[in-house]
From TrEMBL:
InterPro entries: ATP-grasp, ATP-grasp_succ-CoA_synth-type, ATP_grasp_subdomain_1, Succ-CoA_synthase_bsu_CS, SUCC_ACL_C, Succ_CoA_ligase-like_bsu, Succinyl-CoA_synth-like
Record-given protein name: Succinate--CoA ligase [ADP-forming] subunit beta
Pfam families attached to this UniProt entry: ATP-grasp_2 (PF08442), Ligase_CoA (PF00549)
Enzyme class: ligase
Keywords: ATP-binding, Ligase, Magnesium, Metal-binding, Nucleotide-binding, Tricarboxylic acid cycle
Organism: Desulfofundulus thermobenzoicus
Any GO MF annotation of the entry: succinate-CoA ligase (ADP-forming) activity
Assigned protein family: Belongs to the succinate/malate CoA ligase beta subunit family.
Cofactor binding notes: Binds 1 Mg(2+) ion per subunit.
Residue intervals of the ATP-grasp domain: 9-215
Chain residues that bind ATP: 45, 91, 94, 99
Cofactor(s) listed in the protein's UniProt record: Mg(2+)
Documented EC number(s): 6.2.1.5
A biological process term (GO) from this entry: tricarboxylic acid cycle
């Protein structure tokens, strides 16, 4: 479970990690009051569980409380990367001398925590060259030893009071990581502001299976509008940023379909696993959901087992007759009642592929042709 930035910063404060003065608000008037209380230029940040908020227009600056109210009015209610903005964080605008990156997460291969740091903060860690990344595994029986904090501080170029700040910060992050059953505790950027280190952002993910013992951590629903609709339908759905909508049956088949689309140079718009035994009505609703991703192409990839090919074909025909499908559809059917499914489609002038690679390549070709 991901936490909102303001929730993460509240935890940081409890663990002695410096954060900017700020307040969570839900209305323009509350933003005005918060800015007046801070009595300095402020940043108004949309609180959504998505990255790159600044590039999406989800962060604004204000020099006065009135400007803060206007900024809040513009941000509240907007759609930001699939999330509706209902909460804002108003916090002081801090002086930034340099941006660093620091996180603690789980290394699945090593089966233990790993600390990741870089002097190249302010961007996704995946974009930082490997030679500029510091990685140190943490022994669960020992934890963060003082020598590790000193070594990382040295490699980050921190000296004097900044180094002392870091000696306190790293063990505090690790205590939070362990005590809150976190999968990720990330500060990006960790800002050098004068003689202080300040966590300008927070990203914390709590292990879902440990939530029962984290009574003081509020529950956060980490789903977009479409993902909530999918939950109501009863299908597994994750919204992505591509333009080829995908429906498959089974998690493995769905992941394989995403990989095959990517192999041919395409970009998936979603992960949708319609599962085994999904009925005609649920399948029809899942197809309608795909259309809401505004794709260039829909790719239906069914290996019939419990999910029968004729049910999927019938559901597609039902949707096609009931509503306009403004984009090309590529269908691959193999397995249970395959021939019956093909006949249903052929009666509507639709052909189905047998091999996934051929169907995926066609879907990518159609998506490119539409650009």
């Amino acid at each position: 479970m991901k936490l909102y930035e303001y929730m993460g910063k509240d935890l940081f404060t409890r663990y002695g990690i410096n954060v900017p003065r700020g307040k969570m608000v839900t209305s323009p008037d509350e933003a005005f009051a918060a800015a007046a209380e801070i009595n300095a230029p402020v940043v108004i940040k949309s609180q959504v569980l998505a990255g790159k908020r600044g590039k999406g227009g989800g962060i604004k600056f204000a020099d006065t409380p009135e400007e803060a109210r206007e900024a809040a009015a513009a941000l509240l209610g907007m759609d930001l990367r699939g999330y509706r903005v209902d909460i804002l964080l108003v916090e002081e605008k801090i002086k930034i001398d340099k941006e660093l990156y620091i996180s603690i997460t789980i290394d699945g291969s090593a089966k233990r925590p790993v600390m990741i740091a870089s002097a190249e903060g302010g961007m996704d860690i995946e974009e930082v060259p490997e030679e500029k990344i510091i990685k140190e595994h943490i022994d669960l029986d020992i934890g963060i030893m003082p020598f590790l904090a000193r070594e990382v501080a040295r490699r980050l170029g921190l000296k004097d009071s900044l180094a002392k700040d870091f000696y306190r910060l790293l063990p505090a992050m690790y205590r939070l990581f362990r005590e809150k059953d976190a999968e990720l505790v990330e500060i990006n950027p960790l800002v050098i502001s004068g003689d202080r280190l300040i966590a300008a952002d927070s990203k914390i993910t709590i292990d879902d299976y440990a939530l029962y013992r984290q009574k003081d951590v509020p529950f956060v629903e980490d789903k977009t509008v479409l993902e909530r609709k999918a939950k109501e339908i009863g299908v597994s759905f994750v919204e992505l940023n591509g333009d080829i909508a995908i429906m498959a049956n089974g998690a493995g088949m769905s992941m394989g379909t995403l990989d095959t689309i990517a192999y041919y140079g395409g970009s998936p718009a979603n992960f949708l696993d319609c599962g085994g035994g999904t009925g005609l009505e649920e399948t029809a609703k899942a197809l309608e959901l795909l259309l809401e991703t505004n794709p260039r192409v829909i790719f239906i990839n069914i290996f019939g087992g419990i999910t029968r090919c004729d049910d999927v074909a019938g559901a597609f025909v039902k949707v096609k007759k009931s509503m306009d499908i403004p984009v090309p559809v590529v269908i691959r059917l193999v397995g249970t009642n395959e021939e019956a499914g093909r006949r249903i489609l052929e009666e509507e002038g639709i052909s189905a592929y047998t091999f996934m690679n051929e169907a995926a390549e066609k879907a990518v070709e159609l998506a490119r042709a539409d650009k």
